Amino acid sequence: MEESPKTNPAKAGKSQEQKAENAPKSGERPDQGEAPVTDNYRPDPQGERDQENIPAPDVAGAKYKNPILAQPPEALTGLKLEEQAKVAAGVTAVIKSMEFSWSEGGVGRGTKALLGLNQKDGFDCSSCAWPDPDHHRSVAEFCENGAKATASDADDKAAGPEFFAKHSLAELSRMTDRDQNNAGRLTHPMVKRPGGTHYEPIEWPEAFQIVADELNALDSPNEAVFYTSGKVPNEPAFLFQLFAKQFGTNNLPDCSNMCHESSGAALSTTLGLGKGSVTLNDIHEAEVIMIIGQNPGTNHPRMLSALQEAKRNGAKIISVNPLIEAGLNHFKNPQDFMNPLLVLGTLLGNGTTITDVFLQVRVDGDMALLRGIMKHLLAAEELNPGKVVDHDFIAEYCTGYDAVVENIQNTSWEDIEELSGCTREQLLEAANLLAHKKKIIACWAMGLTQQRQGVQTIQELVNLLLMKGAVGKPGAGTCPVRGHSNVQGDRTMGVWEQPTKQFQDSLAEEFNFTPPYKHGYDTVESIKAMYKGKTKVFVSLGGNLLAAGPDTEVIAEGMRKQKLTVFVGTKLNRGHLTTGETSLLLPCFTHVDIDMQKSGHQMTSCENSMGVVSQNKGILVPLAGQMMSEVAILSGIAIATLGERTNIADWVAMTENYDVIRDHISRVIPGFDNFNEKLRRPGGFYLPNGPRDRKFTTENGKANFTKTELEKYTLEPDQLVLMTIRSHDQFNTTIYDYNDRYRGVYGERRVLFMNKQDMADRGLESKQLIDITSHYEGNMRTVEKFLAIPYDIPRGNVSAYFPEANPLVPVASVAKVSNTPTSKYVVVTVVASEAVRKTQKAKPEAVEA
């Protein structure tokens, strides 16, 4: 058994080891241990899910029925439109980062936070999960969005008991999401008691006992739901799933169910591991990079630095997106302003050109696009035998190739062009970049995963990589780009409604209990169960399910049916206000806060998009109040709830020293052996990754080509297809401001991006008030008071920000296999708003007023 601080105090807190020179060197394949067993993803769990349809809620009328608004308020905040930006980052990004940081935490506190961000002896960014360099890191190892997230975490304003005494839940719900977030840090545990209108202070012991009493009163443990956010570090995530399973349920929905679940489902069955296979160094070495269904300039800005280095090394980049995003166009690296050789060119020029070939695909048309590219590659292979397709790789490592080739050849160019929105000639340009290259990386995000056929589209993308032998070697492979800082790590820690038998057996042996083996509710199934009254307690560790999930009013109704809702969080959000009969709001530390426990200053860990686990150690003194760490809160709940059914002394020990948690993890989860030692290496360590070394842990031990079905869907003449997106001043559901400067939108979020011809066909003018109605299986949902704006988007497609557009997404509309909500395929109609129709036409000036 590995020694730990519990048995050998000398093992604790070896901070001096953080300066050891044992990080992986740039360009080397890291030592990552043996590949684990397959993820054992269920190939088609649809039959086990609730197939009963939920009737469409009265989305437009909900504001009149409930005093506490579940949707953001409809009041417009002053739309101004400018030209789309053609360059991402640059001086403006630096200025905006500093402005926001200093406005939230003050100059001293804000600057100190930024200087510790993503450093080897500092704390992990709570924003995106893009990896940090293995070796050298700059003084400013962050992007604009990371600076905003850190500044928000470092906020020196408090939303304490006085704030909640002043504002009822109904009043708070009428604040914008931005103003809720900017109200300040939560500092005291609060309770809304039955019949109450306000959150009121409560002491921690009573709060823990309320949770325990409600949980222990349930007829079945499966009447409780335990939801997590990807912002939660490994150690509390491990305790969260441990507590839920010791309590007796696998109802562990998480935000991954709504984002990269489709990636996990596709990669597990094709390559054996539901994670990407590349490292950051591979990006630098790639010859061709495909960026498909992803907007790095807004969602993962630090990725642009890696793309810039790849371009300087000669890489070509193919971008596939319905929108022409600034980050896919040009990039000015703020780091270049500190280089005297680059500063002048950076200031005067347009920066680095990112995209070589841009394919403006229709929403949901990516599978057809990929099919077309491969059709071209097969034609090139016929003319140049053995020069385009890697037959040696396929013969040694793969199965299913012939069936996929036949499937591609049987697909007509007419279908490919119609469904993708791209011409045969455009796809040939992309295929020509790929044809004679071997080091190819495919990067994607929710633009693929949230389609109806998200899993199958990613499988098609894997088919392309396998055809080229572009998996399992330097400069090549899969790169699903995750969102929140530890969304990948939470799944590794066991936060999954579909736990494998191996994982549960390891938990049972380590903690001496019998865990549940029956699969639990994912996010969509949890929403349905809550709505139908099948659950009574909802516990959320971070996150904002109300704003992140589909069918906002269905979620809200489900929350109101709970006996108890528990929200562990750092700042107020809309999800804290639509509550059960009793509700607890429990304040916790952020990544930037110093976490002092009995054994001293604690650190946690996160796993980034490329499987690197590194430390997170806060550097700021928490605000005055009664905040606790996530670990301490979970331990308090577990001890109060489980009592003698668990090892109370162990929960206490884990709270007093997080090294004890990591000792448990090291014996339960493959790849985490000597966890405490490896975490103290500068830069952390790589987890085992079979596909990275061509060790495919699928059931047949091979990399599997997948024969997919290219489905056609018919729309009515007036119908459009909506996809939801983020704005630039937003990370996930957290709204920092009302601007989206790369797209030229300022002062407003209730906008619908429309093709100019689609607007003209409907008699709509720029900035005109509109209502949007979604259509699904005969049900309609309508949101009111949006503004139509012309934009460069394919005809038949429209786009809007979430969470404002989430009420339009039916909870029953999900991707096959993964059960992910189809936020990238919502059938809608658009009409002038009722107020406009009554006056025949409203002038844009009147709308702005």
UniProtKB/TrEMBL annotation:
Stretches the record annotates as Disordered: 1-59
Domain called Molybdopterin oxidoreductase: residue spans: 185-566
Domain annotation Molybdopterin dinucleotide-binding: ranges: 720-826
| Record keywords | 4Fe-4S, Iron, Iron-sulfur, Metal-binding, Molybdenum, Oxidoreductase
CDD domains noted in UniProt: MopB_CT_ydeP, MopB_ydeP
* Record field: compositional bias (Basic and acidic residues): 14-32, 41-52
The cofactor(s) it depends on are:
[4Fe-4S] cluster; Mo-bis(molybdopterin guanine dinucleotide)
- Look up keyword Oxidoreductase and say if it applies: yes
Mind telling me which InterPro entries this protein's record contains?
MopB_CT_YdeP, MoPterin_dinucl-bd_dom, Mopterin_OxRdtase, Mopterin_OxRdtse_a_bac, Prok_molybdopt-oxidoreductase, YdeP_MopB
Asked if the Swiss-Prot or TrEMBL record annotates the protein with the keyword Repeat, the reply is no
Q: NCBIfam families given for it?
A: Fdhalpha-like
Q: Which family does it belong to?
A: Belongs to the prokaryotic molybdopterin-containing oxidoreductase family.
In its UniProt entry, what is this protein called? FdhF/YdeP family oxidoreductase
| Taxonomic source organism | Hymenobacter profundi
